[in-house]
Design a protein that fits this description.
This protein has 19 helices and 9 strands. By secondary structure, it is mostly helical. It has a 3-stranded antiparallel sheet with strand order 4-6-7. Strand 6 and strand 7 form a beta hairpin. Keywords: Cytoplasm, Histidine metabolism, Lyase.
């Protein structure tokens, strides 16, 4: 099994995905252990002084004015975890919680938090044992960190609350730790606060969304090319010289992908035949411009994610010169903004895909295809209601595109009077990504059927490869009406797995 070593420098996005999704093992490097020990010595020295230090010898948030004596500090740290583990609602997905735990461990190992090495090791032990704390949907405002979600994780470290074992069975955390020979931690000065104060949940979800969207944006180029082909459109609008004069890199990449898929097609270029068209409709002609703008949005979001991966988000932080300073780096605005931006791009990509599907099904605009791609229109309804499903998904995506990050709400007796809502932005983006996959699955289903209905014309070799792979995956072709839901489910699974991209790449080589 792959092992990810956590040091004092930033981990990579692929490291996060390996731990979150693939169950990779985690090890602490020697430099991380040394940095942890050095920062802890600083915290211990401050704890021994009579002067109050936030997070070490004071209360938290609006209660930070109270000095806490040494005899109450273990209780203070335990209490912050218990009281902040106040989440409600459905359980958060396993991969999100594992990403959350791993990213918090990454920051702890930076040497800026003051957490003891043995606490960091226990965090790694939980990940390696497949123990996943039960985290709930609601509880983070995306400021002062993803507080409730991280608190539920810290609660498991203490042997309290509930967690899921490697088989997905929820049991008391104390039982799970004991079964794996893991001793619960007793938190000391600053450690409870350090385990809660990060943007780890929203960052983990951003990284997973970026990985999923990389596949889906390539898939969108494939489905757009298939739709153009099925509509007997022209590929001349994809010529590199046309995109070079508007030099957005994403646009050029999408156009190049579509052109590669369509190379060798006998269906393109018939727009001047029986019903002449000077130009194809926007949803066909402008596909690279819309998908390309989304690709450029992804590039910006990746830059933000990389910067956040390199960050040590905590308050207060231990600096290399031995100072422990309060700060506002836990505010999730940088991550929240790009999460919202991606939701907008996703909604628009789905919207243009739905418009192409509708065009394929409308006999007045499909240039010779049967109504709704039905076998015997009137007796058969064809894909009429598949487009309804697609339209419902697009409508929800528009609602999900409303930014969460503009909806600050004050908390903690107005001490925390402006928050990012980044966790909420991340949660709705996950739903949006799921819906985009379904929308593209419907377009793929319609476009492949439409191409096969163009008798006497041979599709591009890459298109043929996509159609053959789709049929092999259980996605049915033309014919009389049948139960559509299983076909659509197969198309959804095919799209999510990158099946359409993999199929065309056997002909085109790697897409951009």
């Amino acid at each position: 099994m792959h092992t990810v070593v956590v040091g004092t420098t930033s981990v990579t996005a692929s490291d996060v995905l390996a731990v979150a999704r693939d169950g990779a093992r985690v090890e602490l490097s020697e430099d991380a252990r040394a940095a942890l020990a050095a920062a802890r010595r600083t915290v211990d020295a401050l704890a021994a002084k009579p002067e109050p230090v936030y997070g070490v010898s004071t209360g938290f948030g609006a209660l930070a004015t109270r000095h806490i004596g040494p005899e109450l500090r273990t209780r203070l740290q335990r209490n912050i975890v218990r009281s902040h583990a106040a989440g409600m609602g459905p359980r958060v997905e396993r991969e999100v919680v594992r990403a959350l735990m791993f990213l918090r461990l990454k920051t702890v190992c930076s040497g800026h938090t003051g957490v003891r090495p043995e606490v960091a090791q226990t965090m790694a032990d939980l990940l390696n044992a497949g123990i996943t704390p039960v985290v709930h949907e609601y509880g983070s405002l995306g400021c002062s960190g993803d507080l409730a979600p991280l608190s539920h994780c810290a609660l498991t470290l203490m042997g309290e609350g509930e967690a899921e074992d490697a088989e997905g069975v929820v049991r008391p955390a104390a039982e799970l730790l004991a079964a794996h020979g893991i001793d619960p931690v007793e938190l000391r000065e600053k450690e409870g606060l350090a385990l809660l104060n990060g943007t780890d949940g929203m960052l983990g979800m951003l990284l997973m969304a970026l990985a999923d969207l990389e596949v889906l944006y390539k898939t969108a180029d494939v489905t757009a090319a298939l739709s153009l082909e099925a509509l007997l459109g022209t590929d001349r609008v994809l010529a590199p010289e046309l995109h070079a004069i508007r030099p957005h890199p994403g646009q050029a990449a999408s156009a190049a992908n579509m052109l590669a898929v369509l190379r060798g097609s006998e269906l393109t270029g018939h727009h001047q035949d029986d019903a002449p068209r000077v130009q194809d409709a926007y949803s066909v002609r402008c596909a690279p411009q819309v998908a390309g703008a989304g690709r450029d949005t992804l590039a910006h979001a990746r830059l933000v994610a990389e910067r956040e991966l390199a960050a040590a988000v905590d308050n207060p932080v231990v600096l290399p010169d031995g100072r422990v300073e309060s700060n506002g780096n836990f505010h999730g605005a940088p991550v929240a903004y790009v999460l919202d931006f991606l939701a907008i791009a996703v909604a628009d990509l789905a919207s243009i895909a739905e418009r192409r599907t509708d065009r394929l099904l409308d006999k007045n605009r499909s240039h010779g295809l049967p109504p709704f791609l039905a076998d015997d229109p009137g007796v058969d309804s064809g894909l009429m209601i598949a487009q309804y499903t697609q339209a419902a998904l697009v409508s929800e995506l528009k609602r999900l595109a409303v930014p969460a990050s503009v909806d600050s709400i004050p908390s903690s007796a107005m001490q925390e009077d402006h928050v990012s809502m980044g966790w909420s932005a991340a949660r709705k983006l996950r739903t949006a990504v799921d819906n985009l996959a379904r929308v593209l699955a419907v377009e793929l289903y319609a476009a492949t059927r439409a191409i096969e209905l163009r008798e006497g014309l041979t599709p591009a070799p890459a298109s043929r490869a996509a159609i053959d792979a789709a049929r092999a995956a259980g996605i049915g072709g033309p014919g009389p009406d049948r139960h559509l839901a299983p076909d659509l489910a197969a198309a959804d699974a095919f799209v999510r797995a990158g099946g359409a991209v993999a199929a065309v790449e056997t002909v085109t080589g790697p897409l951009a």
